[in-house]
Amino acid sequence: MRKKRYQFIELEHVDSTNAHMRRLFEHKFEEGTILTAETQSYGRGRNGKIWQSPPGGLYMTVLLKPVVFSGNLTILHQVCGIGVARGIEEVCPVEIKVKWPNDLLIQGKKIAGILIESIIGSDKVEAVFVGIGVNVNLCKEDLPVRTIFPASSLLLELDSFIDLNFLKHSIAKNLMNVYDHFLIEGFDRLLIEWNQRSMLTGKNVHIQIDDKRVFGKVEGISGRGGLLIRLSDTEQIKEFINGEIIGIEG
């Protein structure tokens, strides 16, 4: 892999690291520029959900400029998810599992999420903003109440405080290394790792796609980053690029 190719912009407070990075994009920062904030007033997750961002969490956005068309962007959730998982494991004695498309978990409890947004030009991707939120040194009272995949933090799981600076650099290094691997060698080996880490494979799930619900068994993800489900009513395997897991059985 290439030598260190990231730099930090460190702020105390922003509305959203993704939104702030988007506003700074006109300043022509290089790929690998990472904006961090100690707190966010309007941290965001997928589908407009709020990501609670009190002090003690890690909130960052990585600027990428991949030479790919917009149709390839979905897979970056998985690429970056593996990078974040490796970064956490390098600092903490935990095993990170992944949940399609963008969540990271410890023993079924969500401790991190990824939000990817982009600026698309007429014929290329101008910029990709990889927003990362990690529940690090947060107490139970700091976390949202979730009905599925309850929230937790590294502090609660390990019963010890984590050095945010070490963790930040570990995630940055590992994410950029995995991203470089993806650009040079493709997704095949990373696909194997994702499916090994997946906590959904082999389980029956309910998935919401717009106004439709689907039920079936998860077979893994595809080479495009889509979720592969064996439909319960037809036994056919279908790929879903978008959707929300709203229930899990087995």
TrEMBL record:
CDD domains: BPL
Phylogenetic classification of the source organism: Bacteria, Candidatus Schekmaniibacteriota
Documented EC number(s): 6.3.4.15
Gene3D superfamilies from the UniProt entry: 2.30.30.100, Bira Bifunctional Protein, Domain 2 (3.30.930.10)
Leader peptide range in chain numbering: none
Keywords per UniProt: Biotin, Ligase
Pfam families hit by this protein: BPL_C, BPL_LplA_LipB
Protein name stated in the entry: biotin--[biotin carboxyl-carrier protein] ligase
Domain BPL/LPL catalytic, first and last residues per copy: 2-183
GO terms for MF: biotin--[biotin carboxyl-carrier protein] ligase activity
